[in-house]
């Protein structure tokens, strides 16, 4: 197959830059067989955003007046499935469904079944835990979903309302954690974004969810991906500090990373209680050297890195009758451009990229 080198289209406000790839008579003459970047990292994990919409407006993610994409801009299930099939052919083994809130996707169960049939080995999903019932989770499991991550940042009702700006209560999300575990979407991971002055005083209680529910609680450093651009370094609680503060209450035994590409460094409880703690040091100790992830947004843009300013637009290819080889070529081109990492090192870092809700965390 052939495909051209990228055409750079500057967006109106300079960032992000959207790149489109068009099959042509020029360019490379070989079909790619794997997705490898210029630093030698191979892509095995796809994060697929099903929608940018959400019923929450978490303070670290989405402002109340966020503007969502128009439906026509979003990839259809058929387009997503085709993309994933091409990715599987290029060595992608694991897909994480995310958003926005992926459980708002109207045909989620059918989509998961199709992804399973397409040969994805491991399908996981991240949710805010406010939408799907136990029976719906069971149906997702039966359709091929392997694992669920549920986000919750506080156990205090008043604070939950302040952080999520929703009418959902803490009990609803805790029920989802229990339901996910009971229907076998295991190991269930519980995501907590830790922000100094917001919820860091609850670190020990949140870690206690691991012991109580027998799940993996993953404490995530706050990243500069909030649409309100209110992130500052002072609000980041480092992974080291989190471990130190939890250790003062529960002795922790380090178990390292699940896989070398895993973002979380893990711990078990030294007293043998069930559950695990994982800390994700995205800001203080980025784990970019082993990154095996590629993200596709709900409108079909490839984001090689969470902090990419360049987006590679696949939608024109998907909607113009391009061959699978051409799409594979575009994915390979985008992957090759993957940057070394996020480099959030300064206190005045200001994210110019999309917010987390529009990327897919
Ligand atoms: N709506 C779903 C949820 O909240 O789980 C899935 C999408 S959300 C963007 C995916 C993950 O990103 C969540 O665990 C969320 O807590 C995390 N996240 C969002 N904004 C973040 C930020 N600024 N820093 C760190 N993690 C963030
Ligand atoms: Fe919605 Fe998830 Fe973002 Fe919260 S973190 S606003 S639940 S997409
Ligand atoms: Fe991968 Fe970019 Fe995240 Fe580093 S910052 S782990 S390269 S997605």
Protein described:
The chain is an alpha/beta fold and 361 residues long. The chain has helices at residues 77-89, 108-117, 134-143, 157-164, 170-182, 203-213, 239-247, 315-318, 324-336, 356-359; strands at 7-9, 17-20, 45-51, 94-99, 122-127, 147-151, 189-194, 216-221, 252-256, 264-269, 276-280, 293-296, 301-303, 310-313. It has a 14-stranded mixed beta sheet. Helix 1 (77-89) packs across helix 9 (324-336). The longest helix is centred in the N-terminal third of the chain and has 13 residues, at 77-89. The radius of gyration is 20 Å and the shape is globular. The chain starts with 6 loop residues before the first strand and ends with a helix. Mean pLDDT is 89; it is low at 1-15, 22-28 and 346-351. One iron/sulfur cluster (SF4) binds next to helix 10. One iron/sulfur cluster is lined by residues 54, 56-58, 61-62, 99-101, 128, 356-357.
List keywords for this structure.
binds iron/sulfur cluster, 361 residues, TIM Barrel, 14-stranded mixed beta sheet, binds S-adenosylmethionine, alpha/beta, 14 strands
In short:
The chain is of the alpha/beta class and 361 residues long.
Please give the order of strands in the largest beta sheet: 1-2-14-13-12-3-4-5-6-7-8-11-10-9
Using the coordinates above, name the CATH class.
Alpha Beta
Could you name the CATH homologous superfamily? Answer: Aldolase class I
Into how many domains do the coordinates divide? 1
Unreliable segments of 5+ consecutive residues: 1-15, 22-28, 346-351
Q: How many DSSP helices?
A: 10
Strand content: 15-25%
Class inferred from helices and paired strands = alpha/beta
The share of residues in helices is: 25-40%
Heteromolecules bound: S-adenosylmethionine, iron/sulfur cluster
Question: How would you spell out the order of helices and strands?
Answer: EEEHEHEHEHHEHEHEEEEEEHHH
Shape designation: globular
Report the major sheet. Answer: 14 strands, mixed
- The N- and C-terminal alpha carbons lie at a distance of 33 Å
Number of separate strands: 14
CATH-derived topology: TIM Barrel
Gyration radius (Cα, Å) is 20 Å
CATH architecture level-2 label: Alpha-Beta Barrel
What do the pLDDT scores average to? 89
């Amino acid at each position: 197959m052939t495909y051209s080198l990228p055409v750079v289209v500057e967006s109106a406000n300079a960032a992000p830059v959207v790149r489109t790839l068009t099959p042509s008579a020029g360019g490379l003459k070989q079909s790619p067989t794997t997705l490898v970047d210029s630093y030698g990292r191979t892509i095995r994990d796809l994060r697929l955003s099903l929608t940018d919409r959400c019923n929450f407006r978490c303070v670290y993610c989405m402002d109340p007046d966020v503007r969502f994409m128009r439906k026509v801009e979003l990839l259809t299930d058929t387009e997503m499935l085709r993309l994933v099939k091409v990715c599987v052919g290029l060595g992608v083994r694991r897909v994480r469904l995310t958003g926005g809130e992926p459980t708002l996707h109207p045909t989620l169960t059918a989509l998961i079944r199709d992804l399973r049939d397409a040969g994805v080995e491991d399908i996981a999903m991240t949710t805010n835990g406010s939408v799907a019932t136990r029976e719906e989770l069971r149906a997702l499991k039966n359709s091929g979903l392997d694992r669920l991550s549920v986000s919750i940042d506080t156990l205090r009702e008043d604070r939950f309302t302040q952080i999520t700006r929703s009418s959902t209560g803490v009990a609803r999300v805790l029920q989802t954690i229990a339901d996910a575990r009971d229907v076998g979407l295991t190991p269930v991971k519980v995501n907590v974004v830790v922000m100094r002055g917001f919820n860091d005083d609850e670190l020990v209680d949140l870690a206690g969810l691991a012991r109580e529910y027998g799940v993996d609680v993953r404490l995530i450093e706050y990243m500069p991906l909030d649409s309100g651009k209110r992130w500052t370094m002072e609000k980041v609680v480092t992974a080291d500090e989190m471990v130190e503060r939890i250790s003062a209450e529960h002795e922790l035994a380090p178990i390292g990373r699940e896989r070398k590409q895993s973002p979380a460094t893990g711990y078990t409880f030294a007293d043998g209680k069930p559950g695990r703690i994982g800390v994700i040091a995205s800001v203080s100790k980025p784990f970019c050297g082993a990154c095996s992830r590629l993200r596709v947004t709900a409108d079909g843009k490839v984001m090689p890195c969470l902090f990419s300013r360049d987006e590679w637009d696949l939608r024109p290819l998907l909607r113009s009758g391009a061959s699978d080889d051409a799409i594979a070529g575009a994915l390979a081109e985008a992957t090759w451009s993957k940057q070394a990492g996020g480099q959030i090192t300064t206190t005045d870092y200001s994210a110019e990229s999309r917010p987390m809700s529009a990327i897919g965390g």
